[in-house]
Amino acid sequence: MLTMTNINKTYPDGTCALNNISLNLPTGMVGLLGPNGAGKSSLMRTLACLQAPDSGSITFDDCNILQHPDALRAQLGYLPQYFGVYPNMSCQALLVHIAILKGLRKADYQPQIERLLALTNLTHVANKKVVNFSGGMRQRFGIAQALLGNPKLIIMDEPTAGLDPMERESLNNLLVDISKRRLVLLSTHIVEDVENLCHHVAIINKGCVIESGDVQTLLAPLHNKIWRTDVNPDRVSPSHILSKSYRYGQSAYRIYGDKQPNTDAVLVPATLQDKYFFELNKQGAL
């Protein structure tokens, strides 16, 4: 549904945010992974028609959105990483305001707003000012406004930021449900969110795409090459140590290699996090 070809963006201070980005993204949940500063938010702003690239082309459903940005805006839901609100408007009033800006009719937006308030667990605070919301409540409001108008393309930049575990699970269930009929682009540095939700992923670093495709296809080269051990693998090259984590205070290492790194190591299924660290290791980003 969404195709980007040779997208480049350099800011006035000389920062190269996007470097020859080319991606073909299908319907469903698609993850955009990368460390902080990788260019994820710059790409999201470009896709949302908030900034123009220096060069390249973007099409959505065969429509050139750089030439016809209003055609995309009419079917776009966007949750930026940071957003402000009018200080004197209630949650419901602000949703009505946004619905009108999106060109929705009253007969259409009223039932939508009621449903979205319920979905995001904001019905009980519908008449309270959004400016006084907690971080998690404000994030849920942002999700509600992004879903107004039944958009075909939904872009969410770090949507789970500030959400507690129950709110996060509720949002994940909602995103999986709505992605069956549209493209939901989820930008995050939280690998677990993408692994749980997305069937397709693009990994970017320093403004470049370093891997893109179906998750299972991306994991295939790591099959039978990921080892887990609780023992410090001091004889293993640091570049092969993908991660060190803790569970109940006990350390655990995940190692890439063709051979068993030590007698305590066991083969484990490769995860998207393994792939993420593997690719960033190759880039020298870790």
Automatic annotation (TrEMBL):
The keyword Nucleotide-binding applies. Residues 2-231 form the ABC transporter domain. Keywords: ATP-binding, Nucleotide-binding, Transport. The keyword Manganese does not apply. It comes from the Bacteria. InterPro entries: AAA+_ATPase, ABC_transporter-like_ATP-bd, ABC_transporter-like_CS, P-loop_NTPase. It holds the Pfam family ABC_tran. SMART domains: AAA. One of its GO terms (molecular function) is ATP hydrolysis activity. Belongs to the ABC transporter superfamily. This is ABC transporter domain-containing protein. It comes from Pseudoalteromonas ulvae.
